[in-house]
Amino acid sequence: MTQRDREAIASVIKAYDVRGVVGDGIDADLVRDTGAAFGLLMRGEGATRVVIGHDMRDSSPGLSDAFAEGVRSQGLDTVSLGLTSTDELYFASGTMDCPGAMFTASHNPARYNGIKLCRSGARPVGQQTGLAEVSDMLVEGVPSYDGTAGTGSSRDVLTDYAAFLHDLVPLEIRPLTVAVDAGNGMGGLTVPAVLGEGSGLPLSIRDLYFELDGTFPNHEANPLAPENLVDLQKHTVAQGADLGIAFDGDADRCFIVDEQGEPVSPSAICGIIAERYLDQHPGATIIHNLITSKAVPEIVREHGGTPVRTRVGHSFIKAQMAEENAVFGGEHSAHYYFSDFFNADSGMLAALHVLATLGGQDRPLSELKQAYDRYEASGEVNSEVADQQGRTAVVVEAFADETVATDELDGVTVELSDGAWFNVRASNTEPLLRLNVEAADESRVEEILDKALAVIRA
C-alpha cells in the first residue's frame, strides 16, 4: 500500500472524521487505502462486514465504491446502502451490529467530501478511538491481507429506518402543517419516507428544495448560518405552517423555526426533548455540551434529571452518553443524541420529538418556546488568528476583574459576576478562535462580544 506524508494525512483526518476538498487531499486512492486501514482495524475487533452509505454529492458514489474495495481487500464483506442520510447509516450500523462508513461532507460546499466512521452498534470513531491508528497506517502503508477478499452486496433500509423512528415517537397529535427545507440534501430522501403522505402521520408537508443536488443550487446546506434559514422562514409564513424544519446536507441535524418564521434555538430544542425523556425516565442523566445555554442544565434539574456537561464534538458526546448511561444529549450546533437510537445523533428523530411536543398541546410554537429561551446568546463568532493560545490568554485576562470562575474543559469558559459567561476555543481544523457569549439581555451580550473581539482581533 502507498505510504503518505503525515502532514498531508493530518490535513484531511480531523478530530471526528475524514474531510477535505476532492482532488486536493481526498481522492479514490486515499479513500481506498482508508477503507483498507479501517477494515484491518475493524477485523481486529471481530467485525466481519461494514455497511456503507453516501450522500448526493457527485463524488460520493465513486469514493464510497473505492472505500468498499479497500474494506474487502482486508477480508471483510461490504453492504452498500446507496443514497442515505447519516442517521440512516447509524440505524443500519446499529440494527445490523456492524461498523459503518458514511460518505458526506455534511454542510460543507460541493467541492468537499469526507467519511464519518462508526464501530458496530454506531459507536463512535474519533481521533482517540481509531482515527489515529488509521492515520498511522496511511502514513506507514496499510499491511496487506493474505486471506480471501470479502464480498459486496446492496441493501435498502429506508422503510425499516422510518418504521423504527415511528416506533420510538408515535405521533398521536393534532394535525400540523410543516414547512421543510431539505437544502437539496438527504432530507429530500428521508423526509417523504418518515413524515410524508405515505407515513400515515397527521402532517401536511410543504416541501422546499427536496431535489437531491450536491451542487446546492439554492443555498448552502448549513442551517446554522442565519442566511441559509431565510428561505425556510419565508416559506413557513407563506404556507401558514405551524413550524418549519431545515436539515443540513446529510440530514443528521435539524433546525426549527416557529410559525412566525423566528428561529428556535438548539438549546431550547435540547430543553424540550430533555423534558420528554425525563418524563419517561425520571431522574435520568442528560448530556449537554458546554456551549449550550445554561437554561439546559436548569431545565434538566427542574425536572429531576442530572445534567452532565461535556466538550464539543460528536465522538466525545457519544462516548459520554455510554459512560454516563445518559438517555439524551444535545449540542449548540443542533446535533441531538438518543440512547434509544444507539447513542447516535439524528436530525429526524429530534424533529419527531418537537412535532410530538407541539402537536400534543394547543399553543403555537412561538408561545411554547418561551419557557426554554431564558437568555440571550451571540451564536458562534469566528476570528482567524495565528496564535490561538496567546489570543485566548489575552482575552481571558481582559475580563479578570469581573471573573468569578474559569474552566478548561474545552478551550476556556469564563463565568462573570453578573451571571453572564463566554467560551473561547480553538478550532480543531482551522486557524480560528470560536467565541460564544450568553447573558441576561442582548445589550450585555453585545458588550461582552465587542470587548472580547477587540482583544482577539487586535
TrEMBL record:
Cofactor dependency: Mg(2+)
Q: Would you identify the family this protein belongs to, as annotated?
A: Belongs to the phosphohexose mutase family.
Q: Which gene encodes it?
A: manB
| NCBIfam families to which the protein is assigned, alphabetical | PRK09542.1
- Asked if Phosphoprotein is a keyword of the record, the answer is yes
List the molecular function annotations (GO) for this entry. intramolecular phosphotransferase activity; metal ion binding
Q: What biological process terms from GO does the record include?
A: carbohydrate metabolic process
Q: What is this protein called?
A: Phosphomannomutase/phosphoglucomutase
User: Which Pfam families does this entry report, sorted A to Z?
Assistant: PGM_PMM_I, PGM_PMM_II, PGM_PMM_III, PGM_PMM_IV
Cross-referenced CDD domains: PMM_PGM
- Give the source's domain of life in one word: Bacteria
